[in-house]
Design brief:
The complex is a heterotrimer of chains A (about 325), B (about 350) and C (about 290). Chain A has about 325 residues and is α/β, with parallel strands linked by helices. Chain A is built from 10 helices and 12 strands. Chain A is globular, with a radius of gyration of 21 Å. The two termini of chain A are about 25 Å apart. With about 350 residues, chain B is an alpha/beta fold. Helix content of chain B is about 35%, strand content about 25%. In chain B, the strands form 2 sheets. Chain B has an 8-stranded mixed sheet with strand order 6-7-8-3-9-10-12-11, sandwiched between helices. In chain B, strands 2-1-4-5 form a 4-stranded antiparallel sheet, with helices on one face. The longest helix of chain B has 18 residues. Chain B is globular. Chain C has about 290 residues and is mainly alpha-helical. Chain C is globular, with a radius of gyration of 23 Å. The chains are: A alpha/beta (about 325), B alpha/beta (about 350), C mainly alpha (about 290).
Amino acid sequence: MSAFLSLRNVGKDYHLARRSPFRPRPVLRAVDAVSLDVHQGETLGLVGESGCGKSSLARLIMQLETPSRGAITLDDVDLAGLGKADLKAARRNFQMVFQDPYASLNPRMRARAIIAEALRNYRTGTTADIAARVDELARQVGLGAHLLDRFPHELSGGQCQRVGIARAIALNPRLIVADEAVSALDVSIQAQILNLIIRLQAEMRLTLIFVSHDMSVIAHVADRVAVMYLGRIVELGATETLFASPGHPYTRTLLGAVPTPSPARRGRRSAPAGEMPSPLNPPSGCHFRTRCAHATSLCAQQVPTLRPVMGRSIACHHAETLPAPQTYPEVDHA
Amino acid sequence: MTSNPVLSVDMLSLEFRTSGQCVHALDKVSFSLARGETLSLVGESGCGKSVTAMAIMGLLPKNSARVTSGSIRLDGTNLIGLSERQMQTIRGNRIGMVFQDPMTSLNPVHTIGMQIAEAVRRHKHVSKKDAWARARQMLERVRIPDAANRLLAYPHELSGGQRQRVMIAIALACDPELLIADEPTTALDVTVQAQILELIGELKTELGMSVLLITHDLGVVAASADRMMVMYAGRIVEEGPVERVFARPSHGYTAGLLRSLPGHGAQRRGLLAEIGGTVPRLDKLVEGCVYAPRCAFAAGPCTAALPPPRQIEAGHRSACIRHEAVFGAMADNDIVRSWA
Amino acid sequence: MSFTGTTRTTPSTLSRWLGYARSNPATVFCAGVLVIFLLIALFAPLLAGDPLKIDPAQRLRPPSDSAIWGRDHLGRDVFARAIYGTRVSMLVGFSVAILVTVLGVAIGIYAGLSTIGGAIVMRLADALMAIPAVLLAIAFASLMNAGLLTVIIAITIPEIPRMVRLVRSVVLGVRQQLHVTAAISIGTSGLALVWRHILPNTLGPVLVQATYACASAIIASAVLSFLGVGLSPEVPSWGGMMADARQQFRIHPVLMLYPGVLLSLLVLAVNILGDRLSDALDPRKARRSGL
C-alpha cells in the first residue's frame, strides 16, 4: 500500500536570538530527521512531552512552517515544491484542529462567519449555498443553530471546539491534524469531543493525525502510535503492541508515569529520574541516554535509527536485549 | 479520623455578587482533614474547588465574595471573620499553598533563594543568614541538586518541574500544618508530574503535615490521596476513602466522570460515555440535586428536594438517592472492577 | 476561573445601551460634551453674531446684551469668536484623527507584515519622532500657504509615526495569535487575512491612539494660532483669542479664560471617551462593562 502522507527525513531548525555577539546563534532542532508514512483512513497518534517536537511536526505537515530539511509528500505530491496558488488548492485536503478552543477562533467573528470563512475562501457556492452548508456543518458537529450567531467568548470551551471542528471539515478534507484537540477540556467535555472526532472520521473516511501528550487519549483513538523525544521518533508501532509491551526505554518511562485511576498505581514509586534535557543542547548519540538505565557507551557515540524490532519500530541500540517490560493492564487494549 | 482535625470546614456557603448578579459558588460545603492525611478535592473547572481553597486562605476578593454561612476552622480557630492582618500570620505560615502555574507564581526579578528566605523572614524572627540557610535546606529538601548554587538562580533559569519544586519549598519554608496544592501538576509533563506528586507524598510523611490536593485528574487522586471528595456545582456530592469511592462509586456524577475517561474499559475507538448538557449557571440555588438534569440515573424524586448526604459505608457518604442504581450500573466498569 | 454559567443570551440593543449608560455616567457625560461642541460648531451662525466685525469704539467693553462675554481689544464679540473658534478646533481635531488613523494603520500594518519594509519604515518614524511635534508642525506650516488645510497637514505628519509604531507592535502580536494561524490553514491569505483577522484585532489600541491624536491636534492647532502660524489672525480660533488676550491679561484675565476653559473641556472629553470606547468596542470586555 502506497502511503497517503509521507515524511522523509523531515527536520526543522529554529535559529534563536544571539546571546552574545561573539558566539554563533543558538539553533534549536525542533524536529530531527523524522521519516513516517501515514496510510489513508488510519489514525496516527503522535505522543510525547512538551518540547519533543510533536506540535512542530504537526505544523510542518500543515505547511504552516517550512521544513529545514527533508520532504513531505501528500498523494505523491511534494508540498514544499508547490507555488502559492497550488498550495492554496492543496490546503483543501488537509486541515487542523487546535488545542486552545478560544485562542484559535477570531474573537471578533461570530461562529457562523468563522465556519463560513473556509467556504468563502474557496468560493464553494453562492451566499445562500454557503449559509445552508454552515447550518449542515453545525448539525454535523452537534452545535445548536442558535449558537451560530454568538461570538467565541459567548460559547463554552466544548462549543468553541465544535466550531473549530466544523471549520476544519467544511472543505471535506482528507487529512485532519488534531493538535492536542481535547487537552484543554474537562473530562466530560473531552469525551464528547473525542466521540465527535471518531464519528466524523468514520463518516468522512478521514485520515487523522492525533497529537497529544495524554497516553489514555492516544490509546483510545489511535491505530498506530509514534512516540517522540527531543525531536526524534523513538518508537512507532500498532497501538495494541506498543501499549501492551512498550519497547523503547522512554516509552516505558512515559507509560509508567501516567497517573491512571488504578489501584496498581497506589503508593508505587514510579517517577522516572531526571528531566528532559534542553533541546538547545541535546545529549550526543541517543537523546534519551542521560535518563536511561540501560545506556552504554555505544548510546553516547551513535545515533540509534528506527528499525523493526518485535513487530514495531524502535530507535534503541539495545532494543533486543532489554529486560521484558512491565505491563500496564489499565491501558492495555490487546 | 474525627479526633482533632487540622482543618474542618462546616456548612460553608459562599456567594459572589457583581453588578446585580449573584453566583452561589459554594453551597453547604462540609469536610474535615485529619493530621497527616491527604484529602483530594476533585471536580471540573468552575465547580468551586479553587474557590474552596481561596476561601480557606482568605484570598477571595473582599468586595464581591461573601460567606453567607458556615465556618472554616484551623486547629479549632475559626478563620472566617479574622482580619487581613490576622490572616497574614496564618497564610504562608500555618497554611502553605502551591498553585498550578509555577512561572507566574514566582517573581521573575528575584533569585529563588531570596524568595524562599523572604517567605521565612515574613513569619519567623530570624537573621538574614539563618533565613538563607533555611532556604538552602528547603531546596535540598525538595531534591533540587546543587542547592547552594541554585539559590542564586532566577526563575527563568529553571525548568517547569524545578520551579514547582521551588514553589513547594516556599510553601513549606515555615513548616505549615496544612499544604493546599491547587492543580500542582496540571501544567507539567507526565514524567515531571509523577516526580512532583511523589515529592509531595514524601514531604507529607517527613514533615507530618496534612495536604488538601485539588485536581481534576482522577489518576492523580488514585496515585496520591487517602480520601477524596467529588465536587459539582458548588456542592460536595460524594466523599470517602479513595479505594472505597473507586470500588463503589455512589453518585451519578462520580459514575459519569469514571465512565467518560478514555482508555479505560471503553472499547477502543468505541463511544465514550458522555455527560450530556453543560454545567448549570449558579445564579440561583437549586432545590433538588444539581446534577439531576444531566444524570443518566435521575428519577422523579431527584429534582424534588436536596438529598441529604447518606452513609454508604463507613466514612463513605454520597448525596445521591439513586446510589444503588449507580453502583449496579458501574459494577462491571473496568476501573471499578480493578478496585473491588 | 469562571463561576457563571458558560453561555448566555444577548439582550436587546437598546436595553444594553441603557444599562451601559447607567453604569458609566462619566462616559455618557463626555459623549454629551462632545455632542454639544459638535452642535455648536455646526450651528455657529445661529448661536452668535459676526465674529469678524471690528468696532474700535466698543473695545474691551464688559459683557452686555449685544456681547454676553464682552468685547476684545478690537471691539469684536468674544462670545461669537469663541463659538466660531469651536469650528477650527473640531475640524482640525477630527480631520487629523481620521488622517492619522487611515495613514498610520495602513503604513503600520505594512511595517508589521513586511520584514525589510518594516525596518525602513520604522527608522523613518524614529527620525521623525526625534523632532518635537510642534516644531515640526511649525516648520511644515511655514513652508505652505496659510490656511486650514496647511494646519491639518502640518499637524498630521508629526502624529503619524506614533500611530505607525503602535499599529506595528500590535500587528506583530496579532500575527502570532492562534486564530491567525488557523485562518491561514483554511486558505485565507493576503488582504482577506489583514482585513478579517488582523485589522479588527488592532482596533482597540488604534482607537485610543486616534483620540489622543485628536486631542493633541486640538491643542497643537491652538498652539499654532497662538504663535500666529498657519491661520491668518482674523480667523476666529481659541489659540488666536488667547494670543490676543495675552496683552490684556492683567486687566481682563477673563478674555484668556473663555477659550482656555473651552479648550480644556473639549480635550478632556475626547481623552476620556477614547479610554472608555476601547473597552466598549472589545467584544470580550464589553460584557464586563455592561455594553
